[in-house]
Write a structure and sequence with these properties.
The chain has nine helices and no strands. With 199 residues, the protein is mainly α. The protein has one domain: Tetracycline Repressor, domain 2 (Orthogonal Bundle), CATH 1.10.357.10.
Length: 199
């Protein structure tokens, strides 16, 4: 039996509050009492009614962050024409997320490392990231065959790109005044020069 509209709305309200609390005070301090207060609930009982425990709620936080970030990035990347423009759009939209939904990114950074290594949500998230990388590797090979990208080891380049994006995120976490838009443009320029075919 599916959830009612009201139940779904309440769950979404609690998940959003959990995102805000985790982003503000961190995973360890994201108690049900803090989350209930953030959600405007009179007690923690409503959270316990909808979620089996903190891990269950945090699994939904990861799912919601993944949904929001995918909905933001996917249409932009799909609309870009040509491999070079898709690469640039992927990088810039990835970094733009830091400005568009900062609480979501901060919450994800807090929650994922605190889920056990064998936690199904963490494993599922890592598997989803791996699927994206595998898809990107195939796209790189296709662009190389088409002459849009030069010859290079696709997996090495994608690993370097992931590391560069993560480094920008970590700098942003430590410096809220960091110009993420400029960082996104510069990173896109760097990887465009590193991948494009010589004229």
């Amino acid at each position: 039996m599916g959830r009612t509209f009201t139940e779904s709305g309440r769950r979404a309200q609690i998940v959003q509050a959990a995102i805000e609390v985790a982003a503000e005070v961190g995973y360890a301090k994201a108690s049900f009492s803090r989350i209930a207060k953030q959600a405007g609930l009179s007690s923690t009982g409503m959270i316990s009614y909808h979620f089996a425990g903190k891990d269950d709620l945090m699994h939904e936080v990861v799912a919601e962050v993944t949904r929001v970030t995918t909905e933001f990035m996917a249409p932009r990347v799909s609309a870009a024409e040509g491999a070079r423009e898709r690469l640039r759009t992927f990088i810039e939209s990835n970094i733009e997320l830091l400005s568009v939904c900062p609480q979501h990114l901060k919450a994800l950074i807090e929650v994922l490392p605190n889920l056990g290594g064998d936690d199904p949500t963490r494993a599922g998230y890592n598997a989803a990231v791996q699927l994206v990388i595998d898809s990107q590797e195939q796209a790189v090979h296709a662009a190389q065959r088409a002459g849009e990208f030069r010859e290079f080891d696709a997996r090495v380049m994608l690993t370097a790109l992931r590391g560069a994006i993560d480094a920008v995120v970590l700098r942003w976490v430590g410096d809220p005044e960091f110009d993420v838009a400029r960082a996104g443009r510069e990173l896109a320029d760097i990887f465009d020069r590193a991948t494009r075919a010589e004229p």
